[in-house]
């Protein structure tokens, strides 16, 4: 397990997806980063390309990566405006929980994982359920779960 004690700047990691609650996690992380002279990092995990044809699979992989990079750039501008610093950006291919755990293990600068829970009837969302459940023991950083129903004013008031 990498040591986190050597790093003085807190890095708040947010997993980027298309869910509405992700923006709640991002705002919370940006506000915490600004308040603690920290920085935000964003991870976007693309699905693996599954095609029997190598060229088609490579094309699918490249299109997904371009979509991920475009989404991250859009959110990076918002994160910079909120936190005052350009965020660190990561794109990985695979299953989100596994890639997230790998990134945290590989990047000792990451200090806190920030996720927002879906408040719908289906539960908190698959990533939150996985990480707060069976995978929680594999995390080497604190996990902050923010209610996805918080408004911008409510987030600002608690951060």
In short:
This protein has 159 residues and is α/β, with parallel strands linked by helices. The protein has helices at 22-35, 54-83, 96-106, 126-132, 152-158, and strands spanning 11-16, 39-46, 88-93, 110-117, 143-147. The protein has a single domain (11-158), classed as Rossmann fold, CATH 3.40.50.
Shape: globular
Residues in helices, as a percent range: 40-55%
- CATH domain class name: Alpha Beta
Return the string of H and E elements. Answer: EHEHEHEHEH
CATH architecture: 3-Layer(aba) Sandwich
Low-confidence stretches: 1-5
Work out the number of β strands.
5
**Average pLDDT across residues?**
90
Give the strand order of the largest sheet, numbering strands 1, 2, ... along the chain.
3-2-1-4-5
Structural class: alpha/beta
Query: Largest sheet at a glance?
Result: 5 strands, parallel
- And the CATH topology? Rossmann fold
The CATH homologous superfamily is named HUPs
Number of helices: 5
